[in-house]
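Hi support team,

I'm filing this because I wasn't sure whether my run with zinc ion finished correctly. The job status page said complete, but I'd like someone to confirm that the output block is well-formed before I use it downstream. Pasting the exact inputs I used:
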Amino acid sequence: MRGARVEVMSVLIKNGRIITADADYNADIFIEGERIHTIGKNISHKADTVIDASNKLIFPGGIDPHVHLDMPFMGTFSSDNYETGTRAALFGGTTTVIDFILQKQGHSLQEALAEWSGRASGNAIGDYSFHMAVTDFNQNTKKEIINMVEKEGITSFKTFMAYKGALMIDDRQMIGLMEEVKQHGGMVTVHATNGDMIDYLIAKHRDERKLSPLYHYLSQPEVTEAEASERFVDMANYTGCPAYIVHLTCEGALNAVRNATKRNQNVFVETCIQYLLLDASLYEHNFDSAKWVMSPPLRQKKDQETLWAGINQGIVNIVATDHCPFMWEQKKMGKKDFSKIPNGHPAIENRMELLYSEGVNTGRISVNKYVEVSCTNPAKIFGMFPRKGTIAIGSDADIVIFDPTEKHELSATTHHMNVDYSGYEGWEVTGKVKTVLLRGQLAIDRNECLINKGYGQFIKRKKVLGRI
Ligand SMILES: [Zn+2]
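And here is everything the job wrote out:
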């Protein structure tokens, strides 16, 4: 494994235990170029690099379908760019991310795509794709949908039911977008929340001089998310458009989805690692709580139980991060007013290890479910399967070699994300990503990143038909 900085033509991984969403077995993997060539017992092919994976687990590369790198927001940018963000992702076993392009109201989707591609292309180390956030659905935007799906390989369209005047679309636009997207084989995704109600509560708290981070939480009660989730799934049911709810956090919202399943509607649900592990008791008057100022906010313990159960019930399909880091200096923009704290929290590097440690090790989910929600379902739901999201002959050789017994501590002093605090400072996790391959290249090994910026490719995605 020495001298791995040069082009690797073939790799043989020996003696590992391969885990996919539906299998668990011991075999060798032979990789030629970017793809998996052979899987079998005692493979004797000659390879340029041989890796002994005895006592290790072998997972498909993780896919995080909800990240915000180098994102312009509240007059600043999220602090991880495509280079630092995808590098940190690789260190944590995530080989592909899907970021969000934000259309500017009054401007075209194509302009937004050019702007985002300009920041990502040539900088990403890991593979990436984009969702298109439609913030202004009008006659011109409508004409651009087909081109995004057919030519650009961008098949999912994000909507915001909050942030009026910047990102929010109204229900009339939502219905129009759903009809158009359905027609072209795409999917509409949503930040489901009642934006008007939140705006009212924020204004009320500010008027009452209630300005600490606690009021960020109190301005977004569970009902705001539950009501909007129900409205969104109703509109998706009416139009027949494939639908996906991003960062679902609570029992009320998940019950709206359950009701949809009762009428045989299929809705995909994503939650994020923080909503499974952290809760609202972290919000206080102390400004330190700004670390967890994100939208939706952290919820109650009962909601965590709902989400873990939802994963096992198959109603929560994906665990992502909504990675959107800001330096502490940036967070301090809201020192005197919670509504000015940039929303977001860093997790791109921690997701896979936290979910293994807190999910598999504690017995909450099986190791196959772990792969399903963090690798396979993101690939299937977003049109990258079987190229990504599994370990199979012909798939991209995106592979994580994982030591399930190694204990280590999460900390801002050792993480690779470009942010000066950790939401999980001092957490001890069991299980560590040791080696990562991305399209056949040794990407992470011995705590070092061995590939450079520009290696990451834009992944064009297939049509999303609302089935997995
Ligand atoms: Zn987000």
